[in-house]
Design goal:
Number of helices of chain B: 6
Low-confidence stretches of chain B: none
CATH topology of chain B: Rossmann fold
CATH class of chain B: Alpha Beta
Helix content of chain A: 25-40%
Number of domains of chain B: 1
Shape of chain B: globular
Order of helices and strands of chain A: EEEHEHHEHEHHEEEHEHEHEHHHH
Number of strands of chain B: 15
Strand order of the largest sheet of chain A: 1-4-5-6-7-10-11-12
CATH architecture of chain A: Alpha-Beta Barrel
CATH topology of chain A: TIM Barrel
Low-confidence stretches of chain A: none
Largest interface: A-B, 36 and 40 residues
Distance between the termini of chain A: 14 Å
CATH superfamily of chain A: Aldolase class I
CATH class of chain A: Alpha Beta
Structural class of chain B: alpha/beta
Radius of gyration of chain A: 17 Å
CATH architecture of chain B: 3-Layer(aba) Sandwich
Oligomer: heterodimer
Largest sheet of chain B: 9 strands, mixed
Strand content of chain B: 25-35%
Mean pLDDT of chain A: 90
Shape of chain A: globular
Chain lengths: 281, 215
């Protein structure tokens, strides 16, 4: 059987789950542990935790969150953000991560992918590629959540990371991220056709049909989703959202929800099954 | 006094989750790479993610390989997970051929890049179903698992036992059928990760312990 995975993505800043648009303009949504538990109970196939400010400070501060989460959540956990060395990777694996996600450090030092995959196995090393479409139609890789220009061509880079030993690629369309306008099918299809490893599509899911669209029209192995699920969780758990520090007014107004049709993991999965895409339910 | 289980630490893989799964079902487990702990253990868990060669080298460097073999040959229950299952076999094709613990005759093979004109995505990273292959599950750690239950897989290699009678479950990935768990006397091992396969997976830890009188 060939199944796809539905992977909720939790972007973390300090102790909080946050969400931005185009990976920027972060807003506080709640406590990561509450969301993680909710998604586990709902049938998430995997979780990704990303420390979104870690590269800026050159450290990953998710250890406590991961350690706590891994005590009660028995599905794979991938951790990314600010991992620069073999020893950084070893540390997050030791506190309960199953896989690590590299971006900034991999672009600065591609040898890290090679060393890490030799040491921990290819299947432990996920490389995240943040792509922005340029006016001339090409796609370039960015780092630091779409902030830093590298000039590296996304398609060349995706092949290179697989050669170096990456076991999986997360391809993010920064242009679509947080907008709810649907995945960038052109970008994702092209990557999946170029590489031999599983590809996780990220950026743009605004309703459950978008997930069928991307998985039908590309050979992606998984869909990564944040806003769509987070906004559903918030709607269902208003009391928790109101206890938060930070940008609570935004949450209460639900202003930017209009481009999204929030739904649950099981809605997404039932819709996949109806469209003959196999997944675990 | 409750029985002691040693999760063998050879510096590869996510031992934390294996320990959590043990804790939650009441297995008294410690993570150790100490020879004396292994010699005194009532049962062993051999986990692991990563490269076969690196893993065997670490076991040899820590001088654990002969102790593990001796314990298992004397009847101590062992539970191998993922790479830990592969290490129980004779040899691997990964990064050049290497010799394993050789407790079960067989070879470790890699998924092909092409199959029936299709490109196969490797590693196989997915929830996939396990189904029966002759052996009865009732008397094994899979007793609470239904045929075709989903389990979590993450691997590029799989075991090919010389003798089919050790095969406990099979799994089909994109047309390629492989052995996804084995049961042979005191040896039980899975290619999938029960500790990453939700409540159903965790029940496998519990039943393995119950069957072997560990809890």
């Amino acid at each position: 059987m060939k199944t796809v995975r539905i992977i909720p993505r939790l972007d973390i800043k300090g102790p909080n789950l946050v969400k931005g648009i185009h990976l920027e303009g972060l807003r506080v949504l709640g406590k990561p542990a509450d969301f993680a538990k909710f998604y586990y109970d709902e049938g998430a196939d995997e979780l990704l935790f990303m420390d979104v400010v870690a590269s800026l400070y050159e450290r990953n501060s998710l250890h406590n969150i991961i350690r706590e989460t891994a005590k009660s959540i028995f599905i794979p956990i991938t951790v990314g953000g600010g991992l620069r060395t073999i020893s950084d990777i070893k540390d997050v694996l030791r506190v309960g991560a199953d896989k690590v996600c590299l971006n900034t450090a991999a672009l600065k030092n591609p040898q890290l992918i090679k060393d890490a995959s030799r040491m921990f196995g290819s299947s432990t090393i996920v490389v995240a590629i943040e792509a922005i479409k340029e006016p001339d139609g090409s796609y370039l890789a960015y780092t630091d959540n779409g902030r830093e220009y590298t000039g590296v061509d996304v398609f060349e880079w995706s092949q290179k990371v697989v050669e170096l030993g990456a076991g999986e690629i997360v391809i993010t369309s920064v242009d679509r991220e947080g907008t709810g306008q649907g995945y960038d099918i052109e970008l994702v299809s092209k990557i999946t056709n170029l590489v031999s490893v599983p590809v996780i599509a990220h950026g743009g899911a605004g309703k459950k049909e978008h997930i069928v669209d991307i998985l039908k029209s590309s050979n992606a192995s998984s869909a990564m989703i944040s806003s769509l699920f987070h906004y559903h969780f918030i709607k269902d758990n208003e009391s928790r959202a109101s206890n938060l520090e930070g940008n609570v007014e935004f949450l209460n107004q639900k202003r930017s929800f209009h481009t999204f049709e929030p739904c649950q993991i099981k809605d997404v999965k039932n819709n996949l099954i109806e469209n003959q895409i196999e997944c675990r339910i | 006094m409750s029985k002691k289980v040693v999760i063998i630490d050879y510096q590869l893989g996510n031992l934390f989750s294996v320990k959590q799964a043990c804790d939650i079902v009441g297995i008294n487990a410690i993570i150790s790479s100490d020879k004396n702990d292994i010699l005194n253990a009532d049962a062993l868990i051999l986990p692991g993610v990563g490269a076969f060669i690196e893993a065997m080298n670490n076991l040899i460097k820590l001088e654990l390989d002969t102790f593990i073999k001796q314990k298992v040959k004397n009847g101590t229950p062992i539970f191998g997970i993922c790479l830990g299952q592969q290490l129980l076999f004779t040899k691997s094709e990964e990064f050049g051929s290497g010799n394993g613990l050789d407790l079960i005759p067989g070879t470790i093979k890699r998924f092909p890049e092409n199959f029936e004109d299709r490109l196969i995505k490797v590693p196989h990273i997915a929830w996939n179903t396990i189904y029966k292959s002759g052996q009865n599950w009732e008397l094994t750690a899979l007793k609470e698992i239904c045929n075709n239950e989903f389990m979590y897989f993450i691997h590029s290699y799989f075991v090919k036992p010389d003798n089919d009678s050790v095969v406990l479950t099979l799994t089909n990935y994109d047309g390629i059928e492989f052995c996804s768990s084995i049961q042979h006397n005191n040896i039980f091992a899975t290619q999938f990760h029960p500790e990453k396969s939700s409540d159903k997976g965790v029940s496998i830890y519990k039943n393995w312990a119950v069957i072997n009188n560990i809890i």
